[in-house]
Write a structure and sequence with these properties.
The complex is a heterodimer of chains A (176) and B (438).
Chain A: H1 2-7, H2 14-22, E1 26-33, E2 43-49, H3 55-72, H4 76-93, H5 97-109, H6 114-125, H7 129-139, E3 148-150, E4 173-175
Antiparallel strand pairs in A: 1-2, 2-4, 3-4
Chain B: H1 2-14, E1 25-28, E2 34-39, E3 45-53, H2 66-73, H3 83-92, E4 96-101, E5 105-113, H4 117-129, H5 135-152, H6 156-168, H7 182-187, H8 190-200, E6 206-212, H9 216-227, E7 248-253, E8 258-266, H10 275-286, H11 293-301, E9 308-315, E10 318-328, H12 332-349, H13 353-366, H14 374-386, H15 393-402, H16 406-416, E11 423-428
Parallel strand pairs in B: 2-6, 7-11
Antiparallel strand pairs in B: 1-2, 3-5, 3-6, 4-5, 8-10, 8-11, 9-10
Helix pairs in contact in B: 2-8, 4-9, 10-13, 10-16, 11-12, 12-16
The chains are: A alpha+beta (176), B alpha+beta (438).
Chain lengths: 176, 438
């Protein structure tokens, strides 16, 4: 639910609002979290800077946006829309036989059960704003975060990192 | 354990089964709109596809990319709602809607939950009829589009495709990139987008399909509300493209160890009597998977490439027969020679009984797997209407594949394949290849 609130929509999510609409720092911003993993999971954030914005500036803006979110808390109207989206996603996901097989398979190989899969949407629907903020406090610890920058070989908007990226990137991207 | 298996099986059965036989109902609304419907109420939502003929081919010269940018802005503010408000309204209903432009069509894909279907359809109507094309949304989308055009100019596959189209289609709109050029997109104004909107959406151009939880009556009412305010007719459509490719090779210099090669010549219209024979022949020759002749000869026997495929590009306003491969710069000339040999062998000999039997088993067996869900079915049905197929096509298609004989394949191979007429666009630093006819 935290990932959905922060980055689930390219228009209405917290990061999109702060980085793409209120400031013109990013072409896009996203947040992602995989619930089915055998090992420790990661919570990911990514930003594609706008033209003329350096990777360092984009990363700083992302940190600032997260700090603001921790201050401001969850917008109840947005949480309600996210809940609707989660419920709708569950309905739409029943449309694909292949997709369903994959989601059961992924859950079972991660040690979950069929019952877990079937309860998943209900569990998400029960998440409260307090739960979300507690998760945010736990996840956003800069001492446990790594950041990767992807740059083009001739990038003139890079930050302090030295050396060229091994692949030519169409866009500069920051993820952490 | 057995209980677990039963639960899992039950869960899968509740999902929409893959149906080889899909019953299509033809619906005509009071307003005169024709639609194809597959009613299937096991999941409480409906998928709707609207395909408008014309697409980016209707962009005037100098305005390349107008339809693409316009489509990209259709869900970014409409009526009284700005971009944020519109996105919030869609989310609040758990609906989905997307707009995209291709060469031949502007496509609208929507999915509505049954519980609020009418409200969601009203939202789509607002987007379709009253898009705002706000300045700030336009600049953001323009920046994203230009960024994507720039990256495609550094992608050898995209370069090869653009160069091939420019050479194949003369001065027909097909010769231009669908998303435009950096210059044309930078110059587009809001007025251009309003023009593109007027050109792009008209009642005499739309093909409609729906699949899911909706009755014929409800669909008819929904469509009259949704589309009733569109103009009756659109502007003149493009003429058919004369495919006029010189035989030979054109090299586009590009740094890197590999050469990406786009090749082809004139194709065959979708409504040609021999289309099925051509389709079956191409599946054996190079249908984009392992086991084709091209993959066996160029990849497995000679190790020249990881992948090679050929495709019948049969479109609304012109047809080509194309292929793609990538190979090391040192071996580009060999790969081209071998490709020509395979083209020639098929033209001379046709196919064997074993090849024909195997491909028929594959094509007929794989066909039902396409219909995985309402969204896929609606998309396929709209595409079928665009191609002029009958509503019972899904029931007759496999019989048409089975009816193709060796003689049919031989005849179409001789007619269609032109080994000496092939043109090869080579993007890379190929050794021993120069521009020009040979």
């Amino acid at each position: 639910v935290l990932a959905e609130l922060l980055g689930g929509s390219s228009t209405t999510s917290v990061l999109a609002r702060k980085l793409t609409f209120e400031q013109d720092v990013a072409l896009s911003a996203s947040a992602f979290y995989s619930a089915t993993a055998l090992d420790y999971t990661t919570f990911g954030l990514s930003v594609v800077p706008s033209e003329g914005v350096s990777l360092q500036e984009a990363e700083d803006a992302l940190d600032a946006a997260l700090a603001e979110f921790l201050e401001e808390g969850v917008d109840p109207a947005q949480l309600e829309r996210v809940r609707t989206r989660i419920r709708a996603s569950e309905i739409y996901s029943r449309d694909s036989v292949q997709g369903r097989a994959r989601s059961y398979g992924a859950a079972l190989t991660s040690g979950l059960t069929v019952a877990d899969v079937e309860e998943w949407t209900d569990l998400l629907m029960a998440v409260t704003p307090e739960d979300v903020m507690a998760a945010a406090e736990e996840v956003f610890d800069r001492d446990r975060a790594v950041t990767g920058w992807l740059r083009g070989p001739d990038s003139d908007v890079g930050g302090p990192a030295t050396g060229d990226a091994p692949v030519e990137a169409p866009l500069d991207e920051v993820s952490q | 354990m057995s209980r677990f298996i039963i639960t899992l099986a039950a869960a899968l059965l509740l999902a929409l089964p893959l149906r080889a036989q899909v019953a299509v109902e033809e619906v005509t609304t009071e307003g005169g709109i024709d639609a194809w419907l597959v009613e299937e109420s096991s999941i409480p939502f409906v998928a709707i596809e609207l395909h408008f003929l014309g697409g980016a081919s209707l962009d005037p010269d100098g305005k390349e990319g107008a339809a693409n940018l316009m489509a990209g802005l259709m869900d970014q503010g409409a009526g009284e709602m700005d971009e944020q408000a519109f996105a919030e309204a869609v989310e609040a209903l758990g609906a989905g809607m997307s707009f995209s432009a291709s060469r031949d069509t502007i496509s609208v894909s929507a999915r509505f939950l049954s519980e609020n279907r009418d409200e969601a359809a009203e939202l789509l109507r607002t987007a379709l009829i009253e898009p705002r094309f706000d300045e700030d949304a336009m600049e953001r989308t323009r920046a994203r589009t230009i960024s994507s055009i720039r990256s495609s100019l550094r992608n050898p596959n995209a370069i090869a495709s653009r160069e091939f189209d420019a050479r194949a289609y003369g001065d027909h709109p097909y010769s231009r990139p669908t998303d435009g050029t950096e210059e044309s997109v930078a110059a587009l104004t809001r007025e251009d987008l309003l023009d593109a909107h007027r050109r792009g959406f008209a009642l005499d151009r739309v093909h409609v399909a729906a699949a899911g939880d909706i009755s014929a009556e409800a669909l008819a009412a929904l469509l009259d509300d949704l589309l009733g305010d569109l103009p009756e007719s659109g502007p003149e459509l493009p003429s058919r493209a004369e495919v006029d490719l010189e035989s030979g090779v054109s090299v586009v210099p590009f740094d890197g160890p590999q050469s990406v090669i786009a090749f082809g010549h004139a194709g065959i219209p979708r409504d040609d009597d021999d289309f099925f024979a051509a389709y079956v022949m191409n599946e054996i020759l190079g249908g984009g998977r392992f086991g084709t002749r091209l993959m066996r000869e160029l990849r497995e026997r000679r190790g020249l490439t990881y992948g090679v495929g050929s495709y019948l590009v049969s479109q609304q306003f012109g047809d080509t027969y194309q292929g793609r491969m990538a190979t090391s710069n040192a071996q580009a000339a060999d790969a081209i020679e071998l490709l020509r040999e395979e083209w020639q062998r098929m033209a001379d000999e046709g196919v064997s009984d074993d090849e024909l039997d195997a491909i028929k088993t594959y094509l007929t067996g794989a066909y039902p797997l396409r219909f995985d869900g309402n969204a896929a079915i609606a998309r396929i049905l709209a595409g079928m209407q665009m191609q002029g197929l009958d509503p019972d096509y899904m029931e007759t298609r496999n019989d048409k594949v089975r009816a193709v004989t060796r003689e049919d394949v031989r005849a179409i191979a001789e007619r269609l394949l032109d080994p000496d007429g092939l043109h090869f666009v080579v993007v890379g630093q190929p050794e021993g290849l120069e521009n020009g006819a040979d």
